[in-house]
Amino acid sequence: DPMVRISLRLIPYSPTQWLVVVRDVTKLMRLEQVRRDFVANVSHELRTPLTVVHGYLDMIEPEEHPDLAVMVEEMRRQSQRMTQLVEDLLTLSRLEAQEHLPEEPLGMASMLVTLRREAEALSQGRHQIVVEDLAGCDLTGSVKELHSAFSNLVSNAVRYTPTDGRITIRFSRTADAGARLAVIDSGYGIPAQHLPRITERFYRVSTSRSRESGGTGLGLSIVKHVLSLHQGRLEIESEVGRGSTFACVFGPARVRARSAAEA
Ligand code: ADP
């Protein structure tokens, strides 16, 4: 595509003058596009072989091969992880390519019920799960993507909170008539020096704990992308040993009256 892309920056220079910085970013953007396409293609190509490996592994009956049982179990776990990684990479590519998302009504009362169920399924009774619906409104946006963002935060809260901890899912209004979905945990917390980079792809605080937790290191980048496509933002507060709060904050334009079906 022969189009030239230019980045313009205006910098105040003196009380009566501005500096205009013009940069040709054509090459930079083309490289970025190549990177995105490459990741998307590789991920896509990995899907089929993984499905085959999965399928054959599922055909092995561990009882018939007691000597292989441990190995087969580990191979299943690892191929499951790889599948999750590929799915998350494809999700990120899809989000990066997207400029506009559907504007659908998102019923928050039923969303909160779903999130509670997901938290309980992951926690298996190891945590206290609390849901607080204080906002009395709904949202608009892509139901699928917002659900995946909220689910990611809920699953992190469960995975990074030791047994007997508490996880609170709180939906409330903000001072500027927007809304906020916060996932609050009483878990391990995140050291302050990691916070600025925590939403980067593959960035993880403690690799051993994170790896054991079964995540891919892509969850928070997905959350951040989804929120920015909704003109929202992710707020993070955390204290080591006390817990973390991850909040999805939406402007007033994303808020709608709660539908009768949801009230
Ligand atoms: P992962 O798949 O590793 O969970 P994420 O992108 O979701 O990837 O999170 C990145 C890292 O941030 C995690 O590896 C973990 O170290 C840290 N993290 C995320 N959520 C929490 C939380 N609720 N409490 C403590 N640490 C967290």
UniProtKB/TrEMBL annotation:
EC class: transferase
Q: What is its EC number?
A: 2.7.13.3
One of the record's GO cellular component terms? plasma membrane
Residues in a coiled coil are none
Catalytic reaction list: ATP + protein L-histidine = ADP + protein N-phospho-L-histidine
UniProt-listed GO biological process terms: cellular response to phosphate starvation; phosphate ion transport
Please list which residues make up the signal peptide: none
Q: Where in the cell is it found?
A: Cell membrane
Any GO MF annotation of the entry: phosphorelay sensor kinase activity
Q: Give the keywords, sorted.
A: ATP-binding, Cell membrane, Kinase, Membrane, Nucleotide-binding, Phosphate transport, Phosphoprotein, Transferase, Transmembrane, Transmembrane helix, Transport, Two-component regulatory system
Pinpoint the Histidine kinase domain residues: 41-254
The entry's function note states: Member of the two-component regulatory system PhoR/PhoB involved in the phosphate regulon genes expression. PhoR may function as a membrane-associated protein kinase that phosphorylates PhoB in response to environmental signals.
**Name of this chain's protein:** Phosphate regulon sensor protein PhoR
From what organism does this protein derive? Arenimonas terrae
* Name of the coding gene: phoR
Q: Which residues of the full protein are shown?
A: 175 to 437 of 437
